[in-house]
Amino acid sequence: MDNGFQYIIDNQGISSTSDYPYVGADGTCDEQASSITIAKIWSYRDVNPSEDDMLPAVAMQPVSVVLDASRYKFENYKGQVFTGPCGANMNHAVTVVRYGADADATKFWLMRNSWDVW
Fold first, then answer.
1. Same domain, yes or no, for 109 and 86?
2. Do residues 35 and 63 share a domain?
3. In whole angstroms, what is the distance from residue 102 CA to residue 60 CA?
4. pLDDT at 11
5. Strand pairing partners for 98?
6. 60 and 116 share a domain?
7. pLDDT of the chain along its 118 residues, tens only?
8. If both were cysteines, with which of 44, 78, 86, 96 could 5 make a disulfide (CB 3.0 to 4.6 Å apart)?
9. Mapping DSSP to helix (H, G, I), strand (E, B) and coil, where does residue 12 land?
C-alpha cells in the first residue's frame, strides 16, 4: 500500500475508474486519460494494527489495512459481524471506514474493498 500511496504523491493524483478503467492487458498507458486526476494525497503514515492506534486513525479518515481473505468462511461471508476464524496469510487490502458495536455490544470494523461494502 505504501508504494501505491507514494505513486499517487509522485504523480500528483490518480484518475477515476470511469476516466481510466482497468483493462487487464499488457500495453501502453493512455496518457490523456491517466492525467485526469480526481484525488490527491500529500502524505501518509503507517498505523500500528492495535485497537488503541486504529480507533483514532479511523475516526479521522479511512485507513487501508491488509488481512487474510483466503479462508472459505471469509470468502463467502455475507452480513452481520464476521467472527472468524482469522488467518495470518496477509493477502488482501481493504479500507476500514468506520468502527462501532452491534446491539449485542460486539465490536466491529466496517470495511470496504473492491468486492463490496461489508
1. yes
2. no
3. 21
4. 87
5. 110
6. yes
7. 899 999 899 989 988 888 888 778 888 877 777 778 889 999 999 999 899 999 999 999 999 999 888 877 777 777 778 777 778 888 888 899 999 988 889 889 998 877 654 4
8. 44
9. coil
Residues 65 and 101 in one domain: yes
pLDDT digits (tens, 9 = 90+) for 81-95: 877 777 888 888 889
Total Cβ atoms within 10 A of residue 58: 19
Residue type, 32: Q
| Rounded Cα distance, 95 and 66, in Å | 9
d(CA 4, CA 33): 18
Q: 116: how many CB neighbours lie within 10 A of its CB? A: 8
Give dist(CA 6, CA 91) in Å, integer.
20
Segments forming the whole domain that contains residue 89: 47-118
